[in-house]
Amino acid sequence: MPYEVEDKFKDECGVFGIYIKNPENSTDAARLTFYGLYALQHRGQESAGIAVSNGHNIQLHKGMGLVSEVIALNNIKKMEGNIAIGHVRYSTTGESGVVNSQPMVFHYLNGMVALAHNGNLVNTVELKKRLATYGSVFQTTTDTELVANLMARYSQDKMQDALAKCMIDMKGAYALVIMTEDCLIGVRDRMGIRPLCIGNMSGNYVLASESAALDTIGAEFVRDVNPGEIVVINDDGLKSIQGTASPRSAHCIFEYVYFARPDSTIDAINVYRARREMGKQLARECNIEADLVISVPDSGTAAALGYAEEAGLPFEEGLMKNRYVGRTFIQPTQKMRELGVRLKLNAVSEVVGGKRIIMVDDSIVRGTTSKNLVQMLRQAGATEVHMVIASPPTKYPCYYGIDTSRREELIANTMTPEQIGEFIGADSLNYISMEGMFAALKQDEDFFCAACFSGKYAIPIESIEK
Hints:
The protein starts with a strand and ends with a helix. Helix 4 packs across helix 5 and helix 5 crosses helix 6. Helix content is about 30%, strand content about 25%. It is of the alpha+beta class. The chain folds into 2 domains: about 240 residues, Glutamine Phosphoribosylpyrophosphate, subunit 1, domain 1 (4-Layer Sandwich), CATH 3.60.20; about 170 residues, 3-Layer(aba) Sandwich (Rossmann fold), CATH 3.40.50. The strands form 7 sheets. Strands 4-3-5-2-11-10-12 form a 7-stranded antiparallel sheet.
């Protein structure tokens, strides 16, 4: 089985949707969705797709690969309509294959509906058994199809009422972008675990996983979809319905640590500013004598800049990233894994040679990449390599739509920070404290889901495992 080089958690998906009242060009909705998905490509690289409605029927084009590989100009020219939704996928539940790619389009009692889903339900076994009892059949292995079947169960109701009933049944994390033949709908889970925001472009509404996608198409950020909220967009504008009560917020903290683009703002927290503040807090908590600070690009860069500023040390680009490699899958031998790391990152010996280095990264999952990077810096002449991590030790898996290792594969679950530092070959290893992380984010712990660090799951662990 091939191994992916990058030793990071993988995010689940990105979703996008747009409703244009009076498009100047019949393909504007599809074209803008293409650009929106391009801006969300970091959230999933396995498959991509766009569905478009012209008010009478829904067209779909999707496939395996990156947005630019799947959707060509000729495809967009054929996708006429004023409503569109799009999806980029990294599979966390269900196999990786075109049958599981999204959006998914269905026929039901009231016509056609297209659905794009970011997240993961945790009661899929229970739901599938119940729906099968009612006669539902399943063609895919994703929980997105479960959502569609639930919607069909309540199809005698108005769409917004049907979705409110679905939200009672669904447990877990989800941001849904739904398109009927004549409206666009956004739904966010009751705790707001997965992100979803609203934009406005010349009176036309947009939905997206991250605000950076709004910036890309020239839309103005309006607000985040609230936890448990349903927003319905049609010719009358935007209507908000509270689909289910929100007991508390539990926004995914890993969006700020690693997943989201630095230029996104999620639930009123700017990702770049959050990472930079975490780097500053790290410097306050650590007391390391060194000559310069470098980052593991790109997700560690903002934290490294904050660390360098607070510590009064110079920041240099000690590791250069090859931005043209993309996803690199290699055979599972140590030599090939090391080569794979060097394909993506290479040390600048003129910068690190003869220097005591502080290397800042966002997280450590298995420790294999960190070990290779420390070795690479030593080979480039670094006299000391101190690694600092802008998040606490990752000890617990995620059940909410993030592809994490099994708990026994998470290095912080089996080793102390001192043991991990010895394993990766660093002179020292320091993590930010839980208290320091929340202080940097300027929010209380209850604002987030930080179960990957604390083991405190927003949904009780017993029900998830059941």
